[in-house]
Automatic annotation (TrEMBL):
Originating species: Opuntia streptacantha
Presence of the UniProt keyword Nucleotide-binding in the record: yes
Keywords (A to Z) from UniProt: ATP-binding, Nucleotide-binding
InterPro entries according to UniProt: Kinase-like_dom_sf
Any one GO CC term of the record: plasma membrane
Name this protein carries in UniProt: Protein kinase domain-containing protein
GO MF assignments: ATP binding
Protein origin, superkingdom: Eukaryota
């Protein structure tokens, strides 16, 4: 599962979420349980979602609150980010996407059992990333000046890896898990991924035109 394949999964998943989040209905569709446990990858490295039991909005009934079945891996951190509100919206899907993106680039193993993680002292993906990315002495005002890559060393050795891409995608992932007011929207996430050197260079190999065919036409000019 190399760097180029992981980029394809990240972009493909972002396109799926952007399609769902578009305001084609009065209320946009949100997954509520976006999690690595509910995503499969086919032989061409296309992400496939297979659990829509918690989907809300659009043509589906509105589901509010935080049902246990809809908790994702770093659910406890997301509670803090939403200030314990009982509304799950697109921004929470984006937080969950950020967690998946961090896992894709860092190769951190997935652990579904929150209690097991807590007992072992594992801070979870979010806790680990924040500790690695924001040194304790760094004030929030200077966050944008941090230039740190959380890409795993073995992935950096792949011939398609670009150092600048590593910095950009790390920054993107961290913005996805930042306070809700600072998170990008899925449209912005897709655009950011399209600007990566690896995507521009391997546009046809990644089959980007197909991935973008059901989104706004403006995306097509990015290639």
């Amino acid at each position: 599962f190399n760097w180029l394949q992981r980029i394809k999964v990240a972009l493909g998943l972002a396109c799926i979420l952007e399609y769902m989040h578009k305001k084609t209905e009065t209320i946009p569709t949100v997954l509520q349980n976006l999690d690595a446990a509910y995503i499969m990858v086919d032989q061409d490295c296309n992400p496939v979602l297979f659990d829509f039991s918690c989907v809300s909005g659009g043509i589906f009934p509105i589901r509010q609150g935080w049902p246990n079945a809809c908790r994702f891996e770093d659910w406890d951190q997301e509670c803090d980010r939403l200030c314990l509100s009982d509304r799950y919206d697109r921004l929470s899907d984006i937080f969950a996407y950020g967690i998946i993106l961090l896992r894709l680039i860092s190769k951190r193993a997935y652990e579904r059992d929150y209690l097991k993680r807590k007992e072992s002292g594992d801070p979870g993906t979010y806790g680990w990333a924040e500790k690695e990315y924001w040194p304790r002495y760094t004030d929030i005002v200077f966050r944008n000046q941090r230039k740190i890559s959380l890409v795993h060393q073995s992935l950096r050795a792949h011939p398609t890896f670009d150092f600048a891409d590593g910095l950009k995608i790390t920054s993107l992932a961290m913005r996805c898990v930042d306070f809700s007011s600072q998170r990008p929207r899925m449209k912005g996430i897709v655009k950011s991924l399209l600007k990566l050197n690896v995507v521009r260079q391997y546009w046809d190999f990644l089959d980007c035109d197909k991935m973008l065919s059901f989104l706004d036409v403006e995306f097509l000019s990015q290639g």
